Structures are given as structure tokens and as C-alpha cells.
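seq:
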Amino acid sequence: MVKPTKVRKSLYNAPKHVRRKIISSHLSKDLYNRYGVRSLQVRKGDTVKVMRGLYKGFEGKVSNVDLKKMKISIEGVLINKADKKQVPRWIDASNVMITKLDLSDKVRLEKIRNIAKIKNKVIEEEGEKVEQTSEEIKPEQGNANP
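struct:
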């Protein structure tokens, strides 16, 4: 059994490439059916829906991803400070669901396709289904050993 203090310490001391993977959340059912991937890293520009907390049900675009805090901020999710200023409310990525992906980066789309290919899932693209399966090796009929 791992102590909670050790888990917290490993999170606080985690390098950037590990923190980046921690900031991930589930995809909506539509996106899951389309891409065959259950969860992805949250990026600036993605549209997310808050699933837990005070802002439950709110849907908006991700305006910032903070690797140090390991939290995200969403446009429109604001809190009031004592001096009447409004600042973004930082939300944990595990408490949101991605409803629309920002696919302006072609590398991200290629990564999604590769993950689906590994898992042998069916991908829907622009209304057509594309089967992504690994190639099956067929044994040659002439070289069969008795």
C-alpha cells in the first residue's frame, strides 16, 4: 500500500512531461464513438463541460492550462475577489468532460488515430466509418508442416 503523502509528493515533484499526462479527462460519448479513445489530454481551445462542483453543467472553452497547479481555467468560469475583481476559477481536469476537440494541430489528430489503431477501434470521420485494425498475418498454404 502506498501512503497518500508519498503519492502527493510524487505529484508535486513530477516533471513537465508527466504533469502534461495527468491533466487529462474523458471524452463525451459522441467523441468516444467517433475516435475510439476514452480520454485525452486537455488543451487550450478544447470545449469542455464541468461535471463536478459549483459550476456543474457549465460548458465553455479552455482558456488556460497550468502545469504547475495541474488545473485548467475555462472561459466564463469566474470567481469574485474581495476587491470586486473577477478572476478565473481553476478546475481540476478530472472534473470536466471534453465535448469538442481543438484539432487545428494535425499531430494531435494523428496521435488519436494511432491510439485507436492500437486498440483496434472503429473511427468515424466526416460521416463515414473507417475500420482501423492491425494487419493479420495469414499463413502460407504451400509451406504447411504435417
